[in-house]
Amino acid sequence: MKHFIITNRLIEIINEQERIKEDGTEEARDAIRFAEYDTETKNYNIFPEPQPQIPLDRVRYNYQIVDGNDDVLLDENNNQVAINTLHGSVRAFIGLYKSLKQTTEGDVLFFTHGFNTDLNDALDALQNLHEKYVENNTNAIQHIVMFTWPAMSKILEYRDDYRDAELSGYPLARVFLKLETFYRDFFVERGNERCNCNIHIMTQSMGAVVLESMLNNLLRQTIPLRVVLDKVFLMAADVDWTALEEPNPLYNIVDICESVHIYIHRRDRALGVSETTKNPDNRLGKYGPKNKNLIPNNISCIDVTNVPSGEFANHGYFQMSPKVIEDVLKVVKQTGAVEPSNSHFGKNGGFSSLFL
Questions:
Q1: Which of 28, 84, 86, 115 could form a disulfide with 164 if both were Cys (CB 3.0 to 4.6 A apart)?
Q2: Strand partners, 102
Q3: What is the pLDDT of residues 29-63, one digit of tens each?
């Protein structure tokens, strides 16, 4: 099965082929590239960029689907364009749309990994998410899009990764704006049929820093925030426990989504190291929000401390714990406001859940 990768890691030429730099030792870049990942071969193919290159901010999506023809589109002049000649985000977004149209149900999970994750670790996580969230017979998630930023697989490089996570928020903000442009060009202007699918974001650990930085960049540019996403899942979030309070950027996360779900584990050993050696404040993913009365009311906090996490550090439960995975998939399949009585495991599944 095919999933998609978005990255601001360095692109290298190896044996005359474009490959993503694996070790993450470079500084986070503004440039974004798009790729397709095959779960059968466990390999990826980077989509080419147009020559001369077009800045991501100027790319448009004025194409129309041709009924009964999966190989071509009509451009703004109604000329036929072969889909396999498209570049970058155009090819990725339209390819994802066509894949979604071929399935009767199932949403998109946009995943951002944490620190201590080189490219091979990120690809392993993508493969694991496919096995746990797609191949589960629930039809809740059908496609995964992973944003991988230049983290290193070196646990002692926390501060270097943290800086790269913050820098990666700017290119991710541009991707978010291009998604809005795609909606406007492809659906409103060209009248293509919409698919009944939602996009959810899941961040793990320092991935929440990337999301926080993305919002900060959008706010600094005074760009109006619109609801584009459905659910946001913050797993083991390595941000301050006050991050969701005003005037911090994450307070505005509810302006781009329907609801936010914070999963916490009070014995998360990785976050314990973070707060005792790197950060002065308690971590959101370990204790939840400091003051529930100061955060938006469409945020729920789910304490999974007493649920088997599947690993020693209690930090990767989002992909290791069957109960957590089942819970996330149940939330994905819900629409509208999430109610304590019918969401998560708080009432009958053994979670010690706090519904804020």
A1: 28
A2: none
A3: 999 999 999 999 999 999 998 777 777 778 899 99
pTM for the whole structure: 0.92
Strand partners, 145: 4, 110
> Which one-letter DSSP state was computed for residue 42?
T
For residue 247, whether the previous peptide bond is cis, meaning omega lies within 30 degrees of 0, is: yes
Q: What is the pLDDT of residues 341-356, one digit of tens each?
A: 334 443 333 333 433 3
| Cα 293 from Cα 18, distance rounded (Å) | 49
Query: What token pair was written down for 197?
Result: 């699918």
pLDDT attached to residue 206: 97
Within 10 Å of residue 191's Cβ, how many Cβ atoms? 10
Question: What are the residue ranges spanned by the domains of the chain?
Answer: 2-58+92-354
Domain 2-58+92-354: assigned CATH number: 3.40.50
d(CA 94, CA 195) in angstroms, rounded, equals 12
DSSP one-letter code for 230: S
